[in-house]
Amino acid sequence: MATRLAFEEYNIAIIDIDEEAGRMRENKLISKGLKAVFIKADVSIEHNVMKAVEYVFNKYNSINVLVNNAGIGFTGRSIEEQTLEE
């Protein structure tokens, strides 16, 4: 999805706890002439998410699309109904 959005001229921020995988994705996009930045963060920790969002907002001046594909399991409730702990 990031590659498709990047080709549509979106700036991409890859946020991942796995630095090696995140850097690999970042470099792959950059090697294609696309705009991307990697931020190492554990998205299960609210403070890390807030710092990552702040960094992205300061770098790009906005966040237009957010794709969250991190997760451990399915609770049966929508994302709006879940707590931070879930």
Distance from first to last alpha carbon: 25 Å
Could you give the count of β-strands?
Answer: 2
Figure out the total of helices. 3
Strand order across the largest sheet: 1-2
Characterize the biggest β-sheet. Answer: 2 strands, parallel
Q: Mean pLDDT, as a whole number? A: 86
The ordered string of helix (H) and strand (E) elements is HEHEH
Report the β-strand fraction as a percent range.
5-15%
- SS-derived structural category: alpha+beta
Rg measurement, Å: 14 Å
Structural domain count: 1
| Model regions low in confidence, pLDDT < 50 over at least 5 residues | none
Q: Give the % helix.
A: 25-40%
Task: Note the overall shape.
Answer: globular
Oligomer: single chain
Notes on the structure:
With 86 residues, this protein is an alpha+beta fold. The mean pLDDT is 86. It has one domain (2-66). Helices cover 40% and strands 12% of the residues. The protein has a two-stranded parallel ribbon. The chain is built from 3 helices and 2 strands, in the order H-E-H-E-H. The protein is globular, with a radius of gyration of 14 Å. Helix 2 (19-31) links the parallel strand 1 and strand 2 (36-40). The longest helix is centred in the middle third of the chain and has 15 residues, at 46-60.
